[in-house]
């Protein structure tokens, strides 16, 4: 089935708030490129063309000698998961020495939040609301990856998600469209730089196209069913923003969309991506996705799956043999046309051209002999930047009686299975990062204290005592170590040091493998072993500071009552321990804001700030049975989107408008004055939301339309002005037309999505 919404002329404009005009695409000199690629295509045999569509990695299925033979016969187009210059050079040498047409390979990897220096996970980066910080991450990640010889990354991941049960929420930028789009675009711009051909740039491949973040129930690889308004209004703009920024690649999602797997979705990959969005780069299937079309129930057998995928617009096939196995015969029989093969091959050659590989296949490798002697050398890391960025991602959720910052002279009991785990603090998809080079919280606190005070440490609990979960986490690769002492013994040791301390710091949450691909959870609480540790610590009566490490919003309702302070640190990367210590001791002031809603329980899910109104809203002041609520739970979140505390206090003036109305082509400005009324310097994020209370379709109760991160000294004030124009008011109406409808609008400005200053204006 090709046309899902045949009658809908779907246009998707990235709202003005997403920033300036799209950057020039990464494919400069299109005429020269097309001429070059055409003459190359003319020389290629069918098998060589099919070879270009093949993307594989070295491993038991494809050992190095087998790949050498494939290279000799032009049977492979790109390699992923090879990450050192020596190994990459060896394969590129084989292309140059053994193959007929010497078409360079490109090399790709999941450089999602760093290559060797690991930065906070993307969900943490989103919590910084700091575009410049994200650009620093992109630039350094690209630099380190290109310095390792890589040409492409499978990033950014911009799947908007309302599903904390889904483990991959950690890899994206949260629940909001605008924030995800701006972060994704910043990643593409900073990674690709002026051109992906430059020595230290990397071509990006935005993923997972499309809607992977909306898998039903948050269950990995599940299907997605979504209204076109939500799809194009909320989930598609981040992909579009990344493509407008020039991303050369698109990785196609594993899920189906309204019954049609993305990998078999010609409407998505041709009509939308190519025809409407004018995408000229490559589409890549996700790992093994082509053969999965059989299990999806849309292909009868492997041959059928290949036919459907190729015809639907999948250029490169990741990690399976199917394209090379079945395409020759499919072409011979006429089921796949030569034009279709040429199109896909052209896209691959186009990106190789854009990567500069035809000019210099070694452009990211330099001359032989220049390879670093030690790929993991300490001087290849960018620790300072990693720490500075991580500092900005920490979200202070609670701070009763200012228990934080800690005093360096005190006796501190540091406990928890995540306090000294070098692997976990890096988070999932930690690329070529080396766990031994990451700074744990224990080390970070020691570094900060430099011998002052007393720091006691006990592990206190395993990540989990559930043998099934332990087994799951250690399947495929060892991920969690299980202490053989009994849970009681571990807890006793923690309680013993807690009794001696002035304050307890408990580093708890998830291991990195719990927030990863294939890591969906039906229970998003801190695992029971750790909850019992917290109960025992609480019973000591000592002040309790919880340092959370996790890759999704957790249900921490119980801990929110127990703890005196809670600091959300996500997985904060190579310099995580130092950065957390910066915040705990007050050397840095927390400034992160939640990019996702924290629910009170898993039963509330999905719970997100920009939901639609209902006909029977629940009013907690006048509760009524026949209104929209759970009779056994509160409707609202534990911590709302945009929320985060500081060690200083900020106040907001009422909103002033430059005009009470504007009309087509016009705009108005909305301003607030923010004052730091506390005693120390600090940064915060001023957020502007809009709501259209009467429209032809129910509109979200509020939607983020702009934000500004500002830094103020104690006593300092700053006026922050947001512009609002027609684009900010537009939405997809029932006929899928992108319209701004006249009427009254609510405008809210706040330091989170709930406590806002409100006003109204009219659009005529
Ligand atoms: C993931 C992708 C990833 C790819 C290559 C897949 O399993 O879904 O996000 O880029 O593997 O590592």
TrEMBL record:
A Pfam family per the record? Glyco_hydro_3_C
For this UniProt record, the keywords arranged alphabetically read as follows: Glycosidase, Hydrolase, Signal
Q: What class of enzyme is it?
A: hydrolase
What are the residue boundaries of the Fibronectin type III-like domain, all occurrences included? 684-753
Cited InterPro entries:
Cellulose_Degrad_GH3, Fn3-like, GH, Glyco_hydro_3_AS, Glyco_hydro_3_C, Glyco_hydro_3_C_sf, Glyco_hydro_3_N, Glyco_hydro_3_N_sf
Q: Which domain of life is it from?
A: Bacteria
- EC number(s) on file: 3.2.1.21
- Keyword Cytoplasm found: no
Any signal peptide, and if so, which residues?
1-19
Q: Which reaction does it catalyse?
A: Hydrolysis of terminal, non-reducing beta-D-glucosyl residues with release of beta-D-glucose
Q: Hydrolase as a keyword?
A: yes
Q: Which family does it belong to?
A: Belongs to the glycosyl hydrolase 3 family.
Q: Which PANTHER family match?
A: LYSOSOMAL BETA GLUCOSIDASE, PERIPLASMIC BETA-GLUCOSIDASE-RELATED
What NCBIfam families does this protein's entry cite? PRK15098.1
**What is the official name of this protein in its record?**
beta-glucosidase
């Amino acid at each position: 089935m090709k046309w899902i919404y045949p009658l809908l002329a779907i246009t998707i404009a990235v709202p003005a708030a997403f920033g300036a005009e799209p950057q020039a695409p990464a494919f400069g000199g299109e005429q020269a490129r097309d001429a070059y690629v055409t003459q190359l295509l003319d020389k290629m045999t069918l098998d060589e063309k099919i070879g270009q569509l093949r993307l594989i990695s070295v491993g038991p299925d494809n050992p190095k000698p087998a790949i050498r033979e494939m290279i000799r016969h032009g049977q492979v187009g790109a390699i992923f998961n090879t990450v050192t210059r020596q190994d990459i050079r060896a394969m590129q040498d084989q292309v140059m020495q053994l193959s007929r047409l010497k078409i360079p390979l490109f090399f790709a990897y999941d450089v999602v939040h760093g290559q060797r220096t690991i930065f906070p996970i993307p969900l943490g980066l989103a919590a910084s609301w700091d575009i410049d910080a994200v650009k620093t991450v992109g630039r350094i990640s690209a630099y380190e990856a290109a310095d390792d010889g890589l040409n492409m990354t499978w990033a950014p991941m911009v799947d908007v998600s309302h599903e904390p049960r889904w483990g991959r929420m950690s890899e994206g930028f949260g629940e909001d469209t605008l924030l995800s789009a701006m972060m994704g675009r910043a990643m593409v711009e900073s990674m690709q730089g002026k051109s992906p051909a430059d020595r230290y740039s990397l071509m990006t491949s935005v993923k997972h196209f499309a809607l992977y973040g909306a898998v039903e129930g948050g269950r990995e690889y599940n299907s997605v069913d979504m209204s076109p308004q939500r799809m194009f209004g909320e989930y598609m703009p981040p992909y579009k923003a990344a493509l407008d920024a020039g991303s050369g690649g698109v990785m196609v999602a594993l899920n189906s969309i309204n019954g049609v797997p993305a990998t078999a979705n010609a409407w998505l990959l041709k009509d939308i991506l190519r025809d409407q969005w004018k995408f000229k780069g490559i589409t890549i299937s996700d790992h093994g996705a082509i053969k999965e079309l059989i299990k999806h129930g849309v292909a009868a057998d492997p041959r059928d799956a290949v036919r459907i995928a190729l015809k639907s617009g999948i250029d490169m096939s990741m990690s399976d043999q199917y394209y090379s196995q079945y395409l020759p015969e499919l072409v011979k029989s006429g089921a796949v046309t030569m034009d279709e093969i040429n199109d896909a091959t052209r896209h691959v050659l186009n990106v190789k051209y854009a990567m500069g590989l035809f000019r210099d296949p070694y452009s990211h490798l330099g001359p032989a002999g220049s390879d670093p002697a030690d790929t993991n050398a300490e001087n290849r890391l960018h620790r300072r930047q990693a720490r500075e960025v991580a500092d900005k991602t920490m979200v202070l959720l609670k701070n009763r009686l200012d228990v934080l910052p800690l005093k360096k002279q005190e006796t501190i009991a540091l406990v928890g299975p995540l306090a000294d785990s070098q692997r976990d603090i890096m988070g999932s998809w930690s690329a070529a990062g080396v766990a031994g080079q990451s700074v744990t919280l224990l080390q970070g606190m020691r570094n900060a204290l430099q011998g002052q005070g007393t720091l006691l440490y006990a592990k206190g609990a395993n990540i989990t005592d559930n043998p099934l979960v332990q087994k799951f986490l250690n399947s495929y690769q060892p991920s969690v170590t299980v202490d053989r002492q009994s849970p009681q013994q571990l807890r006793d040791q923690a309680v013993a040091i807690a009794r001696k301390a002035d304050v307890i710091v408990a580093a708890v949450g998830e291991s990195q493998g719990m927030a990863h691909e294939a890591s969906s959870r039906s229970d998003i609480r801190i695992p029971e072993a750790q909850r019992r540790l917290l109960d025992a610590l609480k019973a000591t009566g000592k002040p309790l500071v919880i340092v959370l490490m996790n890759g999704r919003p957790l249900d921490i309702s119980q801990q929110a009552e127990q703890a005196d302070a809670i600091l959300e640190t996500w997985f904060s990367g190579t310099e995580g321990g130092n950065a957390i210590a910066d915040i705990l001791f007050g050397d840095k002031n927390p400034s992160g804001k939640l990019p996702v809603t924290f629910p009170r329980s898993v039963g509330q899910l999905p719970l997100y700030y920009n939901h639609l109104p209902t006909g029977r809203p629940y009013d907690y002041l006048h509760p009524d049975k026949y209104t929209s609520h759970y009779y056994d739970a509160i409707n609202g979140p534990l911590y709302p989107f945009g929320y985060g505390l500081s060690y200083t206090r900020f106040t907001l003036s009422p909103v002033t408008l430059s005009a009470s109305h504007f009309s087509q082509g016009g705009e108005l400005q909305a301003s607030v004055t923010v004052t730091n009324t506390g005693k120390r310097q600090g940064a915060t994020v001023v957020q502007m939301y809009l709501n259209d209370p009467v429209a032809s379709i129910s509109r979200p109760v509020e939607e983020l339309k702009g934000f500004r991160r500002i830094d103020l000294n104690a006593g300092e004030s700053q006026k922050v002005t947001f512009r609002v124009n027609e684009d900010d008011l537009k939405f997809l109406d029932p006929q899928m037309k992108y319209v701004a409808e006249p009427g009254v609008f609510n405008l809210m400005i706040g330091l989170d999505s709930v406590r806002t200053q409100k006003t109204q204006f009219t659009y005529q």
